[in-house]
Amino acid sequence: MMAALEHVAYETPTPVQAGVIPVAITGADVLGQARTGTGKTAAFAIPILERMDQPRKSKKPRAIALVPTRELAVQVRDEVDRLSHGRKLKTVALYGGKPIKSQIGRLERGCDFVVGTPGRVLDHLSRGTLQLDELEVIVLDEADRMLDIGFRPDIEKILRSCPKDRQTLLLSATVAPAVEKLAQRYMRDPTIMDFSPKGKSADTIEQRYFTIEQERKFDLLVRLLEREKPEQAIIFCRTKRGTDKVHRKLSRKIKNASCIHGDMAQNVRDRVMKAFRAGESKLLVATDVVGRGIDVTNISHIINYDLPQSSDDYVHRVGRTGRMGREGVAYSFVTPEQGGELTRIEMLINKLLERDEIDGFQAVAQAAPPAEEAKSDDPEKPAPPPPPGRRPRKRHRRGL
């Protein structure tokens, strides 16, 4: 393992790794709370690989990690492969969007470590192509996200299929009541560790916002990119259609822009993420499909073109930059009607976002004066009296 760590140039453990590895390596259950970008994958992969140091003849997996998205499954598998350098260990990723036959073939040839999304793992269990009766460790990575998107029944079925004497490692950015309930039911006296900072977002991330009308957002985006010249940036949109629209318009003005969302074919999504990780693509327009767990270390800017539907999603979006102690900056486009949403985000992260402006750019159009006032030459001239028999109209002060 030390040789593998040297090969991947890991020299100093992050706080999460320094805390989880010594406990997990003893075989104890661990419930760890830590935000993304803190080295959680290596924190559970290193003790599991140490446990697998003794080879065996069985083709059945000894460890499984459940993750919420296909992209995260590929990323975790690749990290396990890197940390397995010099060992004869096989890792298989199981996720939807790819032909199930090729996955069945890999499982039949034997594997030690399975990484997969709950739906596809359950599919293999029901077909009998995946057997967990010799499993030693199960990992629930990004557990809160898996429960948020409705994987709870699938996760519980998988946990019930595992041996009772297994080790369980649960890692989550937040420990909501649903996560606590899952831990109480399926873990044995877990060691609880909290590596979350007091504020919900990282101190290394500069966070700002623009007040902008909806129809002026794209013009602001172009001006902001011209001003900032980001090394790499993710532009988050709320909908798949909006993502396509922004990417189409952006591609006419800027080269090296790509786009990713849930309706795209899996091979296309894989190709987009591979190009973005390699630095071939500088701008990625995306939905929250990449809001969690995707590790691209060179992202310098996050732009929330649309505010997310929940404040927690804001934290995970912003966590795509400022990773592993690097500095980053996040900009959010806030329409005049979204003041309440901005306040909820600020309350969650316990930090006020700084308002930003671009010189010479009018973010909110000035309201035109009422027609009566525009025509009047004399502002002191009193209003004409109402016609006889009609009550005078009340004047109301309109709220902003």
UniProtKB/TrEMBL annotation:
Keywords, alphabetical: ATP-binding, Helicase, Hydrolase, Nucleotide-binding
Q: Identify the InterPro entries for this entry.
A: DEAD/DEAH_box_helicase_dom, DEAD/DEAH_RhlB, DEAD_box_RNA_helicase, Helicase_ATP-bd, Helicase_C-like, P-loop_NTPase, RNA-helicase_DEAD-box_CS
E.C. number: 3.6.4.13
Q: Where is the Helicase C-terminal domain?
A: 204-376
One of its Pfam families is DEAD
GO molecular function (one): RNA helicase activity
| Region named Disordered | 360-400
- Indicate the segments annotated as coiled coil, or none if absent: none
Start-end of Basic and acidic residues biased regions = 372-381
Q: What is this protein called?
A: DEAD-box ATP-dependent RNA helicase CshA
What organism does the record attribute this protein to?
Adhaeretor mobilis
